[in-house]
Amino acid sequence: MSSLWESTEKELERWAYGTMIDCLESYQGQVKEAIEEFHQGTHAFYRANEEYVPYWQGESREAYELVYGDLRQIGARIYAT
């Protein structure tokens, strides 16, 4: 009876670990998708930055520079993480 109990416990542990592995693999896939979306977004942002921003002047340019600085800092933190 004891070995049946131990066998059942081990099977439950295997099932629990299998479930956790599945969850982690799913999470890993979601993280990879988010990273890819981030890369695509930053690429589009820098392309637009190069194309349009050189012509901006005055208050709009100053406001943009503040936002641009914040975005670069956020991007650097994301890449570091």
What's the helix-strand series? HH
Envelope shape:
rod-shaped
Low-confidence segments, given as residue ranges, are none
Q: Sheet with the most strands?
A: none
Distance between the ends? 50 Å
Helix content: over 70%
- What portion of residues belong to β-strands? under 5%
- In total, the number of strands is 0
CA gyration radius, whole angstroms: 24 Å
Number of helices: 2
Structural class designation:
mainly alpha
Average predicted confidence as pLDDT: 90
Describe the structure.
This protein is an all-alpha fold and 81 residues long. It is 91% helix and 0% strand. It contains 2 helices and no strands. It has helices at 2-52, 58-80. The longest helix is centred in the middle third of the chain and has 51 residues, at 2-52. The termini are far apart.
Question: In a nutshell, what does this entry contain?
Answer:
The protein has helices at residues 2-52, 58-80.
Write the topology of this structure.
Layout: H1 2-52, H2 58-80
List keywords for this structure.
0% strand; 81 residues
